[in-house]
Amino acid sequence: MAMTETITRPDIENYIARVQASGVLGQGTQRRDLLRYLVETEHAGRGDTLKAYTVGVDALGKPEHFDPARDSSVRVAVGRLRSALALFEASNHADTVLEVDIPVGTYRPDLKLREQNEQTKAQAPSAASARPHRLIAAVAAFVALLIGIAGYGLWTSQSTDNVVVLEIDRFKGEAPLVDDVTIVMRRALARNQSISVASDFDPNVVLKETDLVLRGSVARRGEGFVVALELSEVDGDAIVWATSKQFEDTPEFSAKVAEVLGNELRVRIFGASKAYLSKRDPATLSPEQLFIMATWVPGPAVNAVEWELERTELMGLALEKAPDFGAAHSVMADKLAYLANVYGPSNQQDLREAALRHAQQARELAPLNPDVMFNVAQAYWHSGAISEAEAAMNRVLDLDPGHDLARFLARMIPFTCETPTPEIINWAERFDATLSPDNPIRWLTLTWIGWLYSNDGQYEKALEYEEQAALIFQIPYTFMRHAMLLHQVGRTDDAANLIRSQSNNWPDIDASHFAEVTYPRLCQQSEDAPGLVALYTDLATAMQNRP
After folding, report:
1. Which of 509-522 are b and which e, b meaning 16 or more Cβ less than 10 Å from the residue's Cβ?
2. pTM beyond cutoff 0.70
3. Which CATH number does 280-414 carry?
4. Greater confidence, 124 or 483?
């Protein structure tokens, strides 16, 4: 370990205060207290006493009969602190006199005075060394997207009993590349959010608290690289998702890996976490876990009003546990506005007003959380506040530039009730073409392309896309537009059968509601509203006149 006699007590206090202020330690006190214990013990010359047992008993409050061979909580806690410190070092907060690192395989921190050679720091990498770092940057990009799943600020308690724990195994591949990727992951996997990301690159140790595990490999093939990912449940080792993609070794390599794999990975993990949590009693879940269960993300879902109402009940439970939980307010806003707009029995003034109140509370309580702002944007859109929805969706991109779905919807929202340009239709089709065929967001991209063609009066083309989307997933917006298109091309019997087929999922679903409420509300800011509303009025009349 480093010499500590020149490190002063003020150096330590300043360092701990700056790390705490940076936010990498979360809102709880356990990581801060663990950091202080490790640093002060090492500084006092007792670093050789920092073993799993002593750290557990002295720093984490474990009982004297604590057995680290059976309980991995010390290793997990120190591993997460190690990652948090790596993230601090990568931030613009790391201008402290003291620098601390906890090498893998030990609990003893390495304390040293920070070098102040600014000229060395300012030197740029040579062209020869820049090429291999494309791979490192690419992996960092999609892992950084992964840790944003639950948003900024959704910190849970320190107990892994209250979170879904995802472990990322060390990637397989050529040794130099794997070592570099390991360093990148240590820096990226620092946030302990409603989905807790852990990494332990010791192949002889198993994280007993782990619920999901991500494995991967990086290998050169020809002039490029193949990146493979596999997401599994630990119980039974069931594979949730696996993919393998080849990328050219070009200057755009990092962006391509993040675009193709990173954005899909975050959706897959969110869906896998929902499936995992659905096996548990909602009353036992933390507010953050309830948020995972209720917030909308493409993936496992049910097309039914009962399922949507259950999401509002889950958020009601979350708000009982944490009234100032902004994420729960954002989901309530989204769900209440959605149901009011598509389902007649839910179209009540007090519920619509409550949706807007929840949206405002969400914005005030969690203004820097991209997932919260995504839900707020959806709530505004359902309410017909199209310009506000567009602004909120662009705010999501400000907070999280890699949010693939927000990037798509930010372009689509302005054309909700407007005639699209050929350029925007082409852009949407190109965007969809970049997605893998089974990407769970494709039903949304396909139905929006159908929406654009419908607004352009190209009903046959719109129907082609709507029928593709219906094979993946449907909601009232999509199946009612699907029915409208069928009627417009002369297939009125098929339109009636489609609406009738949804009556079990959506009792009292009514085409007249879409003609009298849904589209007038969505299109209230559009000059093209009368022509679009007339399409649904025509459908409603046709349905009423049927025997």
Report:
1. bbbbbbbbbbbbbb
2. no
3. 1.25.40.10
4. 483
